[in-house]
Design brief:
Length: 573
């Protein structure tokens, strides 16, 4: 009978009461029902893990009309087709109304389903932890994986090794990173941790310090509930960081008010993309509330593609780039779509390249692209680039006439003044954040040189010869004609008969990265202060879906596991 019960054991999922205390629910069965319920009890000492998504990764709705979705990125191919059709039919004035940072808020009621075999969190509990606020296709996979890897840690909990219960590869490889060998002869079913570690080190382009067996075993002493922090990415990351600190306080208070859990008041942050700016600013303001941070694909020094979108709309990789065209239809096909959406929103503007990005990323080049006429910035991108509009010079970042198609901005100031208020907020965050990092920082960024190349520089390319090779006037001239897809015709001189030079924004992705964040921004992660404990350089993933990459997940688990070693020992119960 004992053997029957041990082989027929069924896992019972963990549940939580209204106060957050864990419990298990099952039914009494007759003796003829030869199954035994397995309840895996969480440790008493809790270290909450909070995931902070990137820009456009949080669902938004209108504050005064909560039933109207301001931003709900599609899930699945069918949803993507519908969203692309809807976006293509959206007028600029409609976009402006929906993407107003002052009239939008986080919508927590997005899709929130969990698979039946995820025994650590129910759909109801996941929604309470904020999962419904995040774009499901982008983030629910990593939220679920973190729940399983951090809390199960074993392949078949409750059973001995002879029944196939081994450390999960993401945990087991930690003790083999320095070339460690299996501590005992490996059975057929046991994962090859040494091989997994060797493959990870190769993919990471880094051999970080390994773990002792005691350090690996210590990970099992804590419970790691995974939360999500959705935020209004249209507003400044300063405000989003403040909302994250408030969320941390509520989560800590939640566990302190339970009868079961013990929490010392610190959390671990895991961030994606712009969420890294939110996480760093929150850590800067409240370092004592954060045990450590793991950053994924953070645009540490910004991304030049933001400038390009203001002048040409969302980039598309050629005629056959159907997926890119669908994304462009949703985000904004041209400058007329993008400008009213982003011009007065500090959050997106905070993704413009900072002074820490390599100088000269905006280039004006002669026909053929090899000879540079001039490049900016030399020092301050705000003064040299962002302050310039098409009213001042042909290469200005935006056209002021496109800012307010709905004619809704305050009559006390002009649309351009509202845009510049948002720019000042963005500059203020950049200046305040600088190169700050939490003392316990880990992270990864993309270095793909083939499939996921990125706009490391933006090129205005002349499509014809410049008469007399007289390039100096091109630095300050206005254009006589422009399109919303990145083309300008520039008179060389002031008189009516002046020869004209045509320019267009190149669509060449000239740098490795992850398709969105270029190397020149991602690599600045290693320059933060204090210096991060480990920075992983990985290829093979797209920016938005990086947390579905095996090696990115392993790097994230490594960072979390190292951070956990800094936690106070759990109390004895």
């Amino acid at each position: 009978m004992a053997d029957v019960l041990s082989t027929a054991t069924r896992r019972v999922s963990l549940q939580f009461d209204k106060k957050g205390n864990p419990y298990f629910e099952s039914v009494k069965s007759p003796d003829s029902f030869k199954q035994c319920a397995l309840c895996v009890k969480p440790p008493h000492t809790v270290i909450p893990v909070i995931f902070v998504p990137g820009i456009m990764g949080t669902n938004l709705r209108l504050k005064d009309k909560k039933q109207i979705q301001a931003w709900a990125p599609p899930n699945g191919k069918l949803g993507g087709i519908g969203a692309a059709i809807n976006g293509a039919n959206q007028l600029p004035e409609e976009r402006q109304i929906l993407f107003d940072p002052n009239s939008t808020e986080v919508n927590p009621d997005g899709p929130c389903q969990v698979p039946e075999n995820l025994h650590w969190v129910s759909a109801e509990e996941a929604r309470r932890r904020g999962w419904g606020a995040l774009h499901a296709d982008s983030y629910h996979f990593i939220l679920q994986r973190l729940e399983v890897i951090l809390n199960d840690q074993y392949s078949n909990p409750g059973h001995p090794e002879e029944r196939g219960n081994f450390l999960l590869p993401e945990i087991g490889l930690l003790a083999h990173l320095n070339g460690g060998k299996q501590t005992a002869p490996r059975s057929e079913k046991k994962p090859d941790y040494a091989k997994a570690a060797a493959e990870a080190v190769k993919a990471w382009n880094l051999t970080p310090p390994g773990f002792s067996q005691d350090e690996v075993l210590r990970l099992d002493d804590y419970y790691y509930p995974v939360w999500a922090h959705g935020y209004n990415w249209l507003q400044s990351n300063e405000e989003s960081a403040q909302s994250l600190i408030e969320k941390i306080d509520k989560i800590i208070e939640h566990y302190k008010n339970t009868n079961y859990f013990d929490c010392d008041g610190k959390v671990i942050l895991v961030t994606h993309s712009m969420g890294g700016l939110v996480g760093r600013r929150a850590a800067q303001m409240a370092p004592d509330k954060i045990l450590g941070v793991v950053h994924g694909v953070q645009p540490v020094a910004g991304a030049p593609v933001v400038y390009r979108r203001f002048r040409a709309g969302t980039e598309v990789g050629g005629f056959l780039d159907i997926e890119g065209a669908a994304v462009a239809a949703i985000i904004g096909w041209n400058a007329g779509d993008i400008t009213p959406t982003l011009a007065c929103s500090p959050g997106p503007l905070e993704l413009l390249p900072t002074k820490h990005y390599s100088p000269g990323w905006l280039k004006v080049v002669k026909k053929g692209g090899s000879d540079v006429i001039f490049s900016l910035p030399q020092a301050d991108p705000y003064e040299e680039i962002y302050s310039k509009t098409t009213d001042e010079c042909w290469w200005g970042m935006l056209d002021p006439e496109l800012i307010d198609p709905a004619n809704k901005l305050s009559t006390a100031s002009t649309p351009l003044e509202e845009h510049r208020k948002a720019l000042r907020k963005a500059k203020g965050l950049h200046d305040m954040l600088g190169l700050y990092a939490h003392p316990q920082t880990y992270g990864y960024y993309g270095i793909d040189e083939k499939k996921f190349r990125t706009f490391g520089h933006i090129h205005w390319q002349a499509s014809s010869r410049i008469p007399g090779n007289d390039v100096m006037p091109l630095i300050y001239q206005k254009d006589s004609q422009r399109t919303m897809t990145g083309k300008s015709t520039v008179p060389l001189y002031q008189d009516e008969d002046s020869p004209r030079v045509k320019f267009k924004l190149s669509n060449e992705r000239d740098q490795g990265g992850d398709g969105t964040v270029p190397l020149d921004s991602g690599k600045v992660l290693a320059q933060l202060q204090p210096t991060p404990k480990a920075v992983f350089c990985i290829s093979g993933f797209d920016h938005q879906m990086s947390y579905k990459n095996q090696y990115a997940i392993q790097a994230t688990i490594y960072g979390i596991a190292k951070i956990v070693q800094q936690a106070p020992p759990p109390k004895a119960y």
